[in-house]
Amino acid sequence: MASSVYLCLLRAVFLVCFVNPLIQGLSEDESVFQNPHHQQEENLTGLPIVTFKWHHVETPYLVIIWVFVAGLAKLSVVELNHHVISVVPESGLLIILGFILGGIVWGADRAQTFKLLPPTFFYYLLPQIILDASYFMPNKLFFSNLGAILIYAIFGTCWNAATVGLSLWGCYEAGVMGNLDIGLLQFLLFGSLIAAVDPVAVIAVFEEVHVNEVLFILVFGESLLNDGVTVVLYNVFDAFVALGGPRIDAAEIFKGIFSFVVVAFGGSFLGIGFAILLSLLTRCTKHIQIIEAGFVFVVGYLAYLTAEMLSLSAILSITFCGICCQKYVNANMDEKSVTTVRHAMKLLANGSETMIFLFLGVTAIDTEIWVWNTGFILLTLLFVFIYRIIGTFLFTWMLNKFRLVPIEVIDQVVMSYGGLRGAVAYGLAALLDEDKIPEKNLMISTTLIVVYFTVILQGITMKPLVQWLKVKRAAHSDLKLIEKLNNRAFDHILAAVEDICGRIGDNWWTRGWNRFEENYISWLLMKPKARKNRDYLFSIFHKLNLEDAINYVSEVRAQTGVIYCTILSFVWFSQLGRYSDCNAIHLLPQHRHKYSRSHFSINQNEDEVQEIFQRTMRSRLESFKSTKMGVNPAKKITKHHKKELTHKVVDLRDISFTWITQL
User: Fold this and answer.
1) Tell me, what's the pLDDT at 322?
2) Where does the record locate the signal sequence feature (predicted)?
């Protein structure tokens, strides 16, 4: 394992040390490549066999090289000693590896030629992560805690931005920071960007800690919506800075508050509109399932770019697009398309996350951005940490007065400590206009230090803190069928109690929404076949069949061996999700597959499937009678043992084919 780590690091060093200076040196000689065809015509004495055209592939080649380096970095981090990974979070290790790569680039070029630019981050890396986080959001858990999440995301963000900005301004006026060219509005602008709790960092750290699901959804949901609120607040204060302090009156402040509400809620409703569009598109892709998975990515990205074009919150737009469409899109799409979306989205999100943390480390090795002011930096770290704790306990105290299950003090401590900053804060700091903010580099330097402190130091100490406080961990076991039935029964009982008492509570709203969603929204956005498959008894029947299949595979393992059982298990569990389509599965076609650009289906023989079905059902009925009534079937005496064994295996295959066809 250690040798593979060293090999990966050596490859990365080779790429950055030798390939990067080579391509940089070639790119500097612009006179040679400005008109390559003219240069060839002047010096051409014969037909060239090959020519070197670096300028044709420069940009995509650099992109692919860095993607490859990021992949090697991820591989190196994963292959490290497990004791190191258990102590230092993966995001922190990627930043540290970015320091090393940034130092190598600096040593080769004497300048930082590669940086994490805001357009690259906001247009190409961040949308994929937000779409992945929102699309796979546990909706029931999210909406059941939506009130608390909105309180933390909206009021908590405004609290952190205002208190940090005002406290820094007060310390500056007291002379603690020395001579700086920063006013009150600039401090509030900096407070708004440093208040961004980054979902990328939160996901990376909290998934490794495995806290309980309520605590995770509160912190994760807050960080996801907090980003959108932070960007809106940042734009409002940026407009105030451009307008100038003397020109700001009560009317401008009211317009700023109104703009905050319109941009935030406008982006959210725009995302819901694109979610409806995506659901309707997947409702009509029955005959062209090969492209339906692509609509998820295209429409999600369109939601982000459209909101950005209309000056609405792009992050909130793509967030609510992913949250609201997942239920209907997964029901409408083919099982293969659902699997494709799942794997492709995780691939893009993990790749973007790796690139972000890696370049956060690479960007730090740049002497041009570093401006040091001890008072400003230390006070920022202190105020960010203190006001996060105060705000969490203050708003939780208010929420616990209305929550049926209050948030415990231990969970509040973890939430306070989990306010990790990341690339969103850095991207907003890099967007600052140096003409309006003379101390831009100081703000960028301070933001990077806050990011490194929270991601690396707080990430390292998060797991020991959770263990020391004995925070309730997430349960990895799935609920049993009887537990799900009990939960559903209790929901109906609580709704009935609220009706008897005349109280309109959460269960009343949940029941009303479920009825409205079942009668109208699902009718509009779901295929009729998908609505039929949502039947509760039908889903229970599928679960029972799944358990029956597991038991049957266990019996087959004892009779026919491990190899055939493994094949049977793979076939069963890859196809059980398609239990509603009885005629779409035929596992051993007798003919060669036909090539098609639009379909995944293979040749089928319905007569053969029907014959196997009837023969196997008779066999299962006899087996059922012998088991329940104690009647053993008559055994046939034959001398041909090999043929009998062969027949037995064939019958088992027939049974497996028929079961899958039934399911």
Assistant:
1) 92
2) 1-25
In sequence order, which ranges of 367-435 are alpha helices (DSSP H)?
374-400, 409-417, 423-430
Q: What is the DSSP string of 507-552?
A: HHHHHHHHHHIIIIIHHHHS-HHHHHHT-HHHHHHHHHHHHHHHHH
At 300 the pLDDT is 93
Taking the CA atoms of residue 90, residue 86, residue 77 and residue 123 in that order, the dihedral angle to the nearest 10 degrees is -10
- Give every CB contact of residue 5 below 8 A, 6+ residues apart in sequence: 76, 79, 80
Structure tokens at 479: 């609920």
pLDDT of residue 27: 40
For 160, how many CA atoms within 13 A lie in the half-sphere containing its CB?
33
Per-residue model confidence (pLDDT) at position 499: 76
In order, the DSSP letters of 33-89 are: HSSHHHHHHHH-SS--S----HHHHHHHHHHHHHHHHHHHHHHHHHTS-HHHHHHS-
The rounded distance, in Å, linking the Cα atoms of 333 and 335 is 6
Which range is least confidently modeled, 41-50, 134-143, 439-448, 507-516?
41-50
Query: Any idea which residue has 């004495």 for tokens?
Result: 45
Q: Whole-model pTM?
A: 0.75
Task: Judge contact between 584 and 578, C-beta under 8 A.
Answer: yes
Name which of 122, 245, 260, 116 is nearest 187 in CA terms: 245
CA distance 53 to 585: 51
CA 191/CA 380 separation, integer angstroms:
9
Mean pLDDT of 561-583: 48
For residue 229 the two structure tokens come to: 């609120």
Lowest mean pLDDT among 54-68, 343-357, 518-532, 603-617: 603-617
> If residue 112 lies in a helix (H) or strand (E), which one and from where to where?
none
Q: What is the pLDDT of residues 43-61, one digit of tens each?
A: 667 777 888 888 888 888 8
